[in-house]
Specification:
heterodimer, A: alpha/beta, Rossmann fold, two-stranded antiparallel sheet, 7 strands, B: 483 residues, 2 domains, 8-stranded mixed beta sheet, 8 strands
């Protein structure tokens, strides 16, 4: 199994466990906006997570916070939150981050997701995950779900060597473009570098150059 | 009457038809009596149609008496090895023969009794017909397994081990995160409401006050949150309308589909959906609702008959369980629209409806699946609030209903494990809220104080007692947090 970070692979684990034993599961292993009450630490000022405001019962901020952290998934929950990120600049665009640091990338994703009010269903996958989803399940199930989710982050960093990544990921990106769904790509290497071309192929590199907007660190 | 008899010609058994015609001749002039007998027999044959066909065994069997039936079956089965998967089919086939035998015996018995009557007065013939109806009905109820009981004796080690087994089941469910009890997901006075299979949950309300809306939301919650298979019998609204409302309800569940467009039922039914809304509804929400294996399955039924009896409901449920899926919840929209008498004789009285409610509760509690295992289900039905009850409620400061507000049928109050009311006037409608109140909670604390829940009636009302923040408010709130 591929690794995003050693302790931050819950979603990916869930994804791979879904494909074990050839069982077709058409549930999207995506971040949820609902929350397990066991994960909430109540602030002590609310009544089990609820407050009264203007005669209306409202969700307390402590629950909203817990919900937001669960929504961000362990991958992004501890990244820096930049409240000043203007989401309108990034919304509906394919973004490429191949020259930025990992903390900056995580911070940008987190800030974008929060500053758009947690309205996008999102998932972060590696090229290996895409390949595995493509091979293990039929296209109409898991792999297809990657093509339909609101916001997909393709994390290209520690994939084991395989010559098929380029074809599979490019086909996925084309499919998402057809559905007018944005994809963000983070790469440890510049997409023009030899390492990237060797690992992910020329296909993906040229596709990204044509269709993605590159983001630079401030 | 003749039309009814003719319909029996469809069944290729001249003996049965002859017996019926003889019986008809004997009681000529008592059409009401004979039509009752015929209607009970019709019910049995309707059920027979759903049974496995004998043709499947490669041979038709003419059933004349039980001995011959047994011999015929043995002849058919001779040398045939039944695969384990087909045991059930064969058992049911034999059962079908036995009941057909009993039915024929009762008809013959009625025929002989009538022929031997010393005094052919109206009273004596009527009594004979009544007796025949009672005996044939008994055959029918035996056929539907509705007269079975679940029993145990509190003696010996078995009871102790059963208790331990029940507790282990509870622990297993708890560990596997299966719901032990079902909640409405609402706080306030509804916080302590915990429903379970075998309960009867009644949602009462005045006309057009959102009973069916609440019922649909509740069933939807069972499907998506608790993964229950639900059977929904609609006696008031079109099957097509309800089906579409469920899908729109799902499309508007933004916990599952955040950031997607809201679908209003008005826009749908008037053909005013935008391309984006249409695409989302048809290509995303509807397939997810119908094909996602993480949700329970909904079976919607709208009978063509105007008189749906309790035995019909039993048959519908049995058919669904045999052919499609196990059932966890049965929602009848609504019970008082069913016909409480099994025969066409006489006019239904209030007591008959009360008996129907009691039967429904009893079925929820003692129901067995087609394999004979205990399979209680959660029974849900709306009930009507009387005008008097509504007016009394309107006179109170907080718009509080009394239990006596329920129209006529007092059995709702007695049989229900949980009884709640919904209240929706123009004021509530404009404020996108529904006032709900708990009137009975058998297993928990009862707080009869009404509470407001937020629901957007235009968007198929996803009910919640929590006011929703707008997108801008959510972003502001998130920015204020240390995340």
């Amino acid at each position: 199994m591929s690794v995003i970070e050693d302790n931050e692979e819950k979603d990916i684990e869930e994804l791979t466990s879904l494909s074990e034993g050839g069982v077709v599961v058409n549930r999207l292993p995506v971040a949820s906006t609902s929350i397990n009450p066991k994960n909430v630490e109540y602030c002590g000022e609310c009544d089990h997570g609820y407050i009264m405001r203007d005669g209306k019962k409202m969700e307390c901020l402590c629950v909203l916070k817990a919900r937001a952290r669960e929504y961000l998934t362990p991958t992004y929950m501890d990244a820096k939150y930049d409240r000043g990120v203007d989401p309108s600049v990034l919304e509906h665009r394919n973004i490429l981050m191949d020259t930025v640091s990992q903390p900056y990338f995580k911070s940008l994703v987190k800030s974008f997701l929060l500053n758009t009010g947690m309205k996008y269903r999102h998932i972060t996958v590696t090229a290996y995950d895409c390949l595995q989803a493509y091979l293990t399940n039929s296209e109409t199930h898991l792999f297809d779900s990657y093509g339909k989710i609101d916001f997909l982050v393709l994390y290209l960093a520690f994939d084991p060597r395989c010559s098929s990544y380029g074809v599979i990921t490019t086909s996925l990106l084309e499919k998402r473009a057809m559905n007018k769904l944005p994809t963000w790509i983070f790469s440890n290497y510049s997409i023009s570098s030899g390492v990237f071309l060797e690992k992910y192929g020329d296909n993906l590199s040229s596709y990204c150059k044509k269709n993605f907007v590159q983001v630079q660190s401030k | 009457m003749i039309t009814t008899i003719r319909s029996f010609l469809e069944y290729p058994d001249p003996q049965k038809l002859e017996a019926l015609l003889n019986l008809h001749r004997k009681v000529s002039g008592f059409d009401r009596g004979i039509s009752d007998i015929v209607s009970v027999i019709e019910d049995i044959y309707r059920e027979f149609d759903t049974y496995p066909s004998l043709v499947a065994l490669g041979q038709e069997i003419a059933v004349l008496n039980s001995q011959e039936a047994t011999q015929a079956f043995q002849q058919v089965m001779n040398g045939v090895v039944i695969p384990e998967a087909e045991y059930f089919t064969h058992i049911r086939t034999v059962e079908k023969m036995v009941y057909e035998q009993r039915l024929m015996q009762e008809i013959m018995f009625a025929q002989d009794t009538l022929a031997q009557l010393p005094n052919k007065s109206v009273e004596s013939i009527s009594k004979c017909v009544e007796d025949s109806i009672a005996r044939i009905s008994k055959v029918k109820s035996g056929f539907n397994d509705s007269d079975l009981t679940i029993s145990s004796i509190s003696y010996g080690r078995e009871m102790v081990s059963q208790l331990e087994q029940d507790y282990q089941d509870i622990c297993r469910k708890k560990e596997s995160d299966d719901a032990l009890y079902l909640s409405l997901g609402l706080g306030g006075s509804f916080k302590d409401l915990q429903l379970k299979k075998s309960d009867l949950f009644v949602v009462a309300g005045y006309t057009s006050h959102g009973k069916s809306i609440f019922l649909k939301w509740f069933v939807y919650r069972l499907l998506t949150v608790y993964h229950y298979n639900c059977y929904y019998l609609s006696l008031e609204m079109s099957h097509r309308v309800i089906r579409n409302q469920f899908i729109i309800l799902h499309a508007n569940n933004k916990e599952i589909f955040p950031g997607t467009p809201y679908i209003t039922y008005d826009a749908y039914k008037n053909g005013n959906l935008t391309d984006e809304e249409h695409d989302f509804l048809v290509n995303v929400a509807a397939p997810d609702f119908t094909m996602n294996e993480n949700y329970g399955t909904l079976y919607l039924e709208q009978p063509e008959s105007t008189k749906v009896r309790f035995s019909d409901l039993e048959n519908y449920i049995r058919k669904v369980e045999t052919e499609f899926m196990p059932i966890d919840c049965v929602a009848v929209d609504y019970l008082s629209l069913m016909y409480p008498l099994e025969s066409n004789r006489g006019r239904p009285e209030v007591d008959d409806y009360n008996q129907l409610i009691k039967q429904f509760k009893n079925m929820a509690n003692t129901h067995s699946n087609p394999q004979g295992k205990e399979a209680p289900f959660l029974a849900v039905t709306p009930a009507q609030i009387s005008r008097n009850g509504y007016e009394t409620c309107m006179r109170t400061e907080n718009k509080v209903y009394e239990t006596s507000a329920i129209w006529k049928y007092t059995e709702f109050e007695r049989s229900a494990d949980a009884l709640m009311t919904v209240f929706l006037t123009e004021e509530e409608r404009n404020a996108n809220k529904l006032k709900i109140q708990l009137l009975k909670n058998r297993d928990g604390r009862l707080d009869v104080e009404p509470m407001d829940v937020f629901c957007d009636l235009d968007k198929s009302c996803h009910l919640s007692d929590i006011a929703q923040r707008s997108e801008t408010e959510t972003i502001e709130a998130l920015r204020s947090l240390d995340i």
